[in-house]
């Protein structure tokens, strides 16, 4: 239960960040940034239909696809995110007069895209999205192995074409730019959230270092043995994968207890199994 509440709390943070992007940057400037929200903005401009109703209808269809192709967990979390987003947006539109932070289309596109990408990435780490074309992007990610951000770019292309027809070439192109930025930034944010350190330690204090990693840092490690090409001496090589906080803890320990060790560090953007992300997800 505690884990479930944490997941939905994180999803809620993502929703709030996305709302900030919509209300302060995109909606006031008629920038259709793709997705169901962009489609709803376009249809509202053409027919005057309430955007919330359009979002609900489109999301119902896409959620059916999510349950069929992705699974119930993704669908339930995304339903919470999508309808939570729609309800909060509806409340804001009816009760609060929100003013654009800037009417500069370049600034609105850049900052709105950053907020939407950040919120989307936060929810994606919890296996959820706000529905819409994010669902089709998730399907492409799962079955075609296309990066989530690139999947969004593909899915949103038709919305951008409609935006060009509805709002004109200039606003449509800003919408296209936002889709491109969001597609790139989502992958960057996801990589940042999953970032770990792959650490190789060449040491003569094998037992001391291994005990610290396994008992104090509480992370596994693998021990190799190799011979130095110059010294011709046998060395112990310890390989471990750590979070940033765990690496800082290890680095402080090595500085005090094994300052003569040789350490190499590489950043890795995805680690599966053995205490990290479930390989089946």
UniProtKB/TrEMBL annotation:
Q: Does the keyword Protein biosynthesis apply?
A: no
* Domain called DUF2179: residue spans: 219-273
Q: Where are the transmembrane segments?
A: 7-25, 52-70, 104-124, 158-182
Subcellular localization is given as: Cell membrane
Entry's InterPro entries? DUF2179 (IPR019264), N-reg_PII/ATP_PRibTrfase_C (IPR015867), UPF0750_membrane (IPR051461), YitT (IPR003740)
Principal localization reads membrane
* Keyword annotations from UniProtKB, A to Z: Cell membrane, Membrane, Transmembrane, Transmembrane helix
CDD domains named in the record? YitT_C (cd16380)
Q: What membrane topology is annotated for this entry?
A: Multi-pass membrane protein
Q: Name one Pfam family in it.
A: DUF2179
Q: What is this protein called?
A: YitT family protein
